[in-house]
Amino acid sequence: MNPPSHFFFSALHLLFIFLTSSASQPELRSLLEFKKGITSDPSNLVLNSWNPFSITDFDICPPKWEGISCDELTGNVTGIVLENHNLTGEIKFHTLLDLKMLKNLSLAGNQFYGGLSITLENVSSLANTVRFLNVSHNKLNGNFFLKDAIGLFWNLRALDLSDNMIRGELPSFVSLRELRVLKLASNLLLGAVPEDLLLTSMSLEELNLSSNGFTGSIGVINSTTINILDLSSNSLSGPLPTSLRSCTIIDLSRNTFSGDISVIENWEATMEVIDLSSNKLSGSLPSIIEYSKLSTLDLRPLLLQGSGASELLLTSPFLPMEYFDVSNNSLEGFLPSDIGRMVKLKLLNLARNGFSGQIPNELSKLIDLVSLDLSNNKFTGNIPDKLSSSLNVFNVSNNDLSGLVPENLRRFPTSSFNPGNEKLKLSNDSPSYPSLPGTVQNKHHSSKGNIRIAIILASVGAVVMIAFVLLAYHRTQAKEFHGRSEFGGQTTGGLSRASLFKFHSNALPPSSSASFGKSRYHFAFVVCETATLFESEL
Predict the structure, then answer these.
(1) Could you give the CA distance from residue 35 to residue 87 in angstroms, rounded to a whole number?
(2) Does residue 332 contact residue 353 with C-beta atoms inside 8 Å?
(3) Which of 305, 388, 427, 478 is deepest in the core (most CB within 10 A)?
(4) Exposed, middle or buried, 179 (CB in 10 Å: 0-12/13-18/19+)?
(5) CB of 225 within 8 A of CB of 248?
(6) How far apart are the C-alpha atoms of 274 and 272, rounded to whole Å?
(7) pLDDT digits over 286-337, tens only?
(8) Which segments does the entry list as coiled coil (predicted)?
(9) By C-alpha distance, which of 30, 33, 154, 129 is closest to 78?
(10) C-alpha dihedral over 404, 406, 409, 414, to 10 degrees?
């Protein structure tokens, strides 16, 4: 069928639908209007399947239209789910106003663009029914939260606008009593975090405002329902909240929170993940012995000091810890042997602190360990044998370790062992572990090479200079000899060429060309011999 015929019959079919007294007419019209906004569909799943010719019963929801779901009894459209189709186009909410029972609208993972501003006039009917709205991972912009429009979505349970370019400040959400999930990460939002989101007045279970421009402090968090709280990568400041009652996962990393970190001892012991990295917190590492479910603790880099890490590992060996990172602090102490009981540990990072003592052999019991970084500390003694075969990250450089490198660790690059560890050996036959390019030893060899080159160049220059001086002197003597013969032994007036160099009368004896040649080569030999002797001293 050629294009003109196709459009002609499509128009006739649509006209027939509109003239039919069916309850689904407005909804079909809405979907087809929405389809017009899609300019690219690489898979053709939407553009091909959303075809009015595929409808045989106008009272029933189009069963084969991609991403469309309907109520089984009424046939009304209840869901549009077109996730990760790489669709391109402009979202126009007003085209969906006739979908009177739409509950789920998910267009995540596409290339939709345009403004996402909501006005009171064009969303009221849609806002009354939608419960799940997800347009994350698109290219939408604008201010979604203008005026009081968000308050119209009083049935909303989940709102996900993550990874777009939505700007503005957040309004109050207190009127959204049904809201359970709010995800606005990676946008251009700013201002303060609304207090009502963190209070018992709401029933939020997950709040993600990460990677925005929020400022100010977080005063009180007394919500008893929030399980996941992510406020990372903002510009929040002030002290940490003094209480946290229900969270299992909290991420406040990459902000400017300050003050004593010990306040987390007052947080609910149900924590599973705590990430406070890249802030300005100080003090000693707090006790987390009561956190029986803690699997991840990330406190790098802060301003922590003392021996709290040793005490923590010593008193909490049975925690289900999988990730323990306190790198880039000023912590001290030793690594207790009880760490071997933390059998679920996958990452251990104590780098750039002041830990000392021996590395316990019990580390070999951590068979799930994939990353171990103990670099830039003061560890001594041998590296334990039979560390986890699952290790893909290993670094003990800049310590004072000695002995043989275990065979199963020799697959790691030289940078895993030095600089530092001068007494560490790769094998019994090697005096020490091979040095890295650019380390002190190689720099020393490089310096020696440079000195040799400088000596040689200086020697050659000296020979040339002396040769020039002696040649000038020889010519002056010859000229004076001929002058005395011609002018009765009297020299000519003015300075002779030799006097320009201020030679003393006893500095060099009168010499012929032959004696000059011998002196020149003798001097060159002495200079080169001196250079050789100097090199041997290096």
Answers:
(1) 11
(2) yes
(3) 388
(4) buried
(5) no
(6) 7
(7) 776 667 788 888 888 777 766 656 666 655 556 788 998 989 988 888 888 8
(8) none
(9) 129
(10) 0
- In the beta sheet, which residues pair with residue 273? 249, 296
Cα separation values, 25 from 22, 55, 94, 391, 415, Å: 6, 12, 16, 62, 70
* Half-sphere exposure in the Cβ direction for 410 (13 Å, CA): 11
Q: 327 and 302 in contact (C-beta within 8 Å)?
A: no
Measured distance CA(432)–CA(405) in Å, rounded = 10
Written as six digits, the tokens of 533 are 């002797």
In angstroms, rounded to a whole number, what is the distance separating the alpha carbons of residues 465 and 442? Answer: 35
Measure Cα distances from 125 to 68, 71, 97, 135, 154 in Å. Answer: 19, 18, 6, 19, 11
Q: What is the pLDDT of residues 487-503, one digit of tens each?
A: 333 333 332 323 222 32
Residue whose structure tokens are 């062992």: 417
Question: Cβ(38)–Cβ(87) under 8 Å?
Answer: yes
Q: At what angle do helices 25-36 and 3-19 cross, to 10 degrees?
A: 150
Q: How far apart are CA 293 and CA 318, in angstroms?
A: 10
Could you identify the residue written with the tokens 């003090």?
283
Neighbours of 105 (CB within 10 A): 21
**Rounded distance between C-alpha atoms, residue 234 and residue 238, angstroms:** 13
DSSP state of 193: P
Phi and psi torsions of 345, nearest 5°: -65, 130
Write out the two tokens for 19: 């003239």
Distance CA 104, CA 81 (A): 7
Q: Assign 469 a pLDDT band (cuts: 50, 70, 90).
A: low
The pTM is what?
0.70
